[in-house]
């Protein structure tokens, strides 16, 4: 153990905690969607600057990404903060609370920066819910000199690891030929038939799919009127898998379904694979062990596993380039689903205060422990290179 809990707690006076709690409420009252988080970034930067930290803006070319840093120059461990909200349900994913948890962890760890051999960075990562800000930051090289990355997310239970699937998003557009659906149907090429055929083929594919994969889609355009053979049909699909290989292999099979339907109906297919690929979370046991060792000291214990509840996050992209942990901390009663109004309410409720503080402690203790122990740091990096 490279540090004592008391030392960290002393870096966290009650007045500072109140400021974090107040900012959490403020962000909650003013939810901002992906890439529009200007107000949130302003509030967080003001908090950091109040503590004497310099906040670098426009990191990776993104207007709502930022970075603050303590410790010696060179490699650093990155603590990642999210702050974007959802349409309709606002902070139904609790990113207002995540950001304050991570800021709390950074301020605690920064209080001991003079003892650090490796730096600690706080990286503000926009657009997790839509757009995949972390993927853009990875491509821009923001994590090139990072030894490892840490994140904590609110949930209905505490779990150090939960698999996160990679997801590829695609739009299929079939072009056919319009015709009167009663007088001259044989003159038409039915684009909607190609679309329906694709959904049927994908439904059959599901039986041959591994249970940890997911395919889901919607019809975005199915024609203009029942008495016209549809000349255009559009469907959006998400294809998810637990590894890069399985995700891309399944994606190719879904595209094949759409291509086969185009051949069968005579419609012309255009496939648009969207840029915002969320890669699967690559697990790092050495890093998980550091967090596990600090769970008790942070007053936390793991809840019941939920292996079937498989979502995706752009933290996966980070985990493919540097050792990464994405832990979950209970901030809502067991059984509360995320992306709901109930979870949004929990993310602002007094009850989540304990989760925020415990999460900040867990991350600060783990970051400082990791950096104080070169053997653990080396083991983490070696495991990453070996996978
Ligand atoms: Zn979410
Ligand atoms: Zn989230």
Q: Approximately how much helix is present in the residues?
A: 25-40%
Main pleated-sheet profile? 6 strands, mixed
**Broad structural category:** alpha/beta
Distance between the termini: 27 Å
Count of separate DSSP helical elements: 12
Average pLDDT metric? 94
How much beta, percentage-wise? Answer: 15-25%
Biggest β-sheet: strands ordered side by side in the sheet: 1-2-4-3-5-10
**What is the string of helix and strand elements?**
HHHEEEHEHEEHEEHEHHEHHH
Quaternary structure annotation: single chain
Low-confidence stretches: none
Short recap of the structure:
By secondary structure, this protein is of the alpha/beta class. It contains 12 helices and 10 strands. Residues 93, 129, 338-339 line the site of one zinc ion.
Describe this structure in words.
This protein is α/β, with parallel strands linked by helices and 387 residues long. It is 39% helix and 18% strand. The protein is built from 12 helices and 10 strands. The strands form 2 sheets. It has a 6-stranded mixed sheet. Strand 1 and strand 2 form a beta hairpin. Helix 2 runs antiparallel to helix 3 and helix 6 runs antiparallel to helix 7. The chain is elongated, with a radius of gyration of 23 Å. It starts with a helix and ends with a helix. The model has no long low-confidence stretch (mean pLDDT 94). The structure holds zinc ion (2 copies). One zinc ion (ZN) binds next to loops.
